[in-house]
Inverse folding.
């Protein structure tokens, strides 16, 4: 008679031990809580057989709970963290297997990274999980799955590190702590201004608080004019315009909130110099009041939008009778004014929009100024070289179809380029509310 073979089942034994350990763990961390007191009171009521024992027991339990919550609040925080750690540890094997984060096959099984530490930040803004890596896995495997881990765990981001050989750390960020630039003590100074539609975000809007200055490039017929009109249509503050080629704003007349509309190179120089003075005066006023942002200033201070269309032409054209020396001095003043406004304007409520036909390495004379133009828009089409200068990504040229009003944008809702379509806005719609001057309906500026 054959004797049946017996096999020890270490897997089953391990599961039983884990279950018993988990039950014991629950009793340990639940022991100081008032629920234990409630059980004891109810037990006394049952033993005593008194009618009034039940309401008394409940009253004592509630009182004990409130006293403990008030005197030992960290006890409940620790309890909640312990519960989250246990939940993570139990769900981790299934998550790791689903994401392919398992070691090399050993004896028919593929080992799973083991959780050895789970630590939460004091403010709950992050959690750090440390895992022991089985053979065949490296931290690079986790880095390649970071986005998948974030989605699976329901957090904003997962940062991968390696605290020691054979271990990997996962820092879980539940929220985007740096995603909002809104001041907690003030309402948004300027509501987002609709520009059109974006492929990934739906409605495409400009929020000056996030994106203080904008660079837009597009040749004639690309939709650049409609983009600028979209900004003007929704802007609630004052406006100053320059257009040396008289292509877009040649017939606009100052009045009301339209403080200036200039076209001659000397007038553009004077206008931008005046804006620089305004920026410095506002900064001095805020400093004198102990304020750091224009929204903290007394009522009556309005945001200012300065549109400098055809900026490369402004920096290269010369006026009739202007000497080369005078032209160079004027261009230097313009560049210095642009640097000052771009670097100081955000805090004092002055925002710049630069328009150009195409990207140019000489658009800015300072790298610090270039970086202030966080919003970038290219309409129509771009070469890979142009896309590289504009977005730092030559592949962005593949987004450009050449169709009027379409293109790529970055810095508005995401740092990487995305396809966009600009709303079509007429000159009359853009001009409405800017003063007594009649908007051009045809011909120059239409």
């Amino acid at each position: 008679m054959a004797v049946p073979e017996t096999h020890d089942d270490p897997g089953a034994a391990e599961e039983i031990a884990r279950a018993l350990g988990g039950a014991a763990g629950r009793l340990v961390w639940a022991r100081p809580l008032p629920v234990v007191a409630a059980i004891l009171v109810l037990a006394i009521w049952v033993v005593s057989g008194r009618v009034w024992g039940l309401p008394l027991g409940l009253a004592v339990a509630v009182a004990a709970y409130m006293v403990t919550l008030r005197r030992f609040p960290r006890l409940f925080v620790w309890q909640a963290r312990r519960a989250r750690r246990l939940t993570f540890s139990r769900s981790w094997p299934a998550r790791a297997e689903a994401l392919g984060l398992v070691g090399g096959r050993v004896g028919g099984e593929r080992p799973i990274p083991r959780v050895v530490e789970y630590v939460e930040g004091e403010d709950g803004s992050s959690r750090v999980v440390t895992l022991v890596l089985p053979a065949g896995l490296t931290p690079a495997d986790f880095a390649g799955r970071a986005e998948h881990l974030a989605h699976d765990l329901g957090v904003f981001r997962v940062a991968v590190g390696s605290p020691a050989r054979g271990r990997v750390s996962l820092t879980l960020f539940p929220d985007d702590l740096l995603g909002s630039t809104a001041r907690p003590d003030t309402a948004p100074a300027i509501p987002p201004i609709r520009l059109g539609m974006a492929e990934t975000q739906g409605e495409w809007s400009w929020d000056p608080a996030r994106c203080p200055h904008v660079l837009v490039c597009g040749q004639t017929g690309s939709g650049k004019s409609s983009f600028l009109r979209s900004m003007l249509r929704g802007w609630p503050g004052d406006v100053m315009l320059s257009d040396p080629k008289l292509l877009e704003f040649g017939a606009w007349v100052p009045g009301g909130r339209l403080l200036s509309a200039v076209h001659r190179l000397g007038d553009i120089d004077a206008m931008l110099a005046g804006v620089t003075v305004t920026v410095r005066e506002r900064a001095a006023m805020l400093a004198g009041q102990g304020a750091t942002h224009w929204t903290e200033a007394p009522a009556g201070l309005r945001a200012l939008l300065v549109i400098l269309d055809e900026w490369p032409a402004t920096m290269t054209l010369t006026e009739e009778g202007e000497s080369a020396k005078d032209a160079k001095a004027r261009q230097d003043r313009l560049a210095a004014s642009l640097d000052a406004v771009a670097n100081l304007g955000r805090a004092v409520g002055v925002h710049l929009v630069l328009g150009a036909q195409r990207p140019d390495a000489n658009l800015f004379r300072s790298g610090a100024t270039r970086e202030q133009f966080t919003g970038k828009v290219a309409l129509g089409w771009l070469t890979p070289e142009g896309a590289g200068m504009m977005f730092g990504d030559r592949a962005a040229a593949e987004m450009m179809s050449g169709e009027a009003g379409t293109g790529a944008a970055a810095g508005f809702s995401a740092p990487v380029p995305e396809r966009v379509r600009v709303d079509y806005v007429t000159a009359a719609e853009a001009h409405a509310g800017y003063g007594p001057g009649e908007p051009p309906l045809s011909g120059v500026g239409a």
